[in-house]
Design brief:
The protein has two domains: 75 residues, no CATH class; 115 residues, 2-Layer Sandwich (Alpha-Beta Plaits), CATH 3.30.70. It is built from seven helices and four strands; from the N terminus they run H-H-E-H-H-E-E-H-E-H-H. A four-stranded antiparallel sheet has the order 2-3-1-4, covered by helices on one side. The chain is elongated.
Length: 219
């Protein structure tokens, strides 16, 4: 089947091509709006101050300290996702665990700034988890890695607008899936149709050339 033949079949089944994707998109859009709760993200940023900062004065020492500090920031970013820090955070907030929250930690490649984002279903609770996570991270980092401090640049605040779920993206994907299914149905139905619909079909079936054809005259 050529592309032009496929387009011709799609034009013949234009209702299916339009209705099925629209129905899929509507169903997914309604379900995501009703069944999927809003998610809120609160973000805090911190700066890692290593214990060697106050001892270095030369430009070379400052550069070496910055490089070491960047690697230390990456280590602390990994530490923020550890079970020790998260369990301490949950205990401080009188929670069983942080299972209902998604925690994302990013460390800059050229700075010692770490960004901690927490996503949950309640904006105030999400901000509280992010700020408490920063406090616990600072204490564990000082005790385990010997850093001087993990200073807060921007504390987390409760978000006034949801950050997810991406309902529009889900709806768009459902529309594309519905379109794919509609095309698949059309192709399968055409392949399953064994009727002779054009002279070429007769030639392939009988193995002899078609000399003439009689047009259908509609009365």
């Amino acid at each position: 089947m050529t592309v032009m033949e496929l387009f011709k079949l799609m034009r013949q089944k234009i209702k299916l091509v339009i209705l099925l994707p629209v129905i899929c998109a509507l169903v997914v859009g309604i379900v995501s709006a009703i069944a999927l709760p809003n998610q809120y993200t609160s973000t805090a940023s911190v700066y890692v101050l290593s214990s060697s900062n106050s001892d270095n004065s030369s430009a070379s020492s400052t550069y070496n300290d910055l490089s070491a500090g960047q690697m230390l920031a990456n280590d602390i970013a990994t530490l923020a996702k550890s079970s020790t820090v998260q369990s301490k955070t949950a205990n401080s907030l009188h929670m069983d665990s942080l299972a209902g929250y998604r925690i994302d930690v990013k460390a800059g490649t050229t700075t010692r700034v770490i960004t901690i984002s927490v996503t949950g279903s309640k904006p105030e609770a999400t901000a509280a988890v992010a700020n408490q996570l920063v406090d616990e991270l600072s204490g564990v980092a000082q005790g385990v890695m010997g850093v001087e401090s993990v200073n807060v640049i921007d504390g987390a605040v409760a978000s006034s607008s949801p950050s997810g779920p991406p309902r529009l993206m889900y709806t768009g994907i459902a529309f594309l899936i519905g379109l794919f299914i509609a095309i698949l149905i059309i192709v399968i139905a055409d392949m399953s149709n064994t009727r002779i619909r054009k002279p070429e079909d007769a030639e392939k079936l009988l193995g002899i050339p078609v000399i003439a054809s009689i047009p259908v005259i509609k009365m």
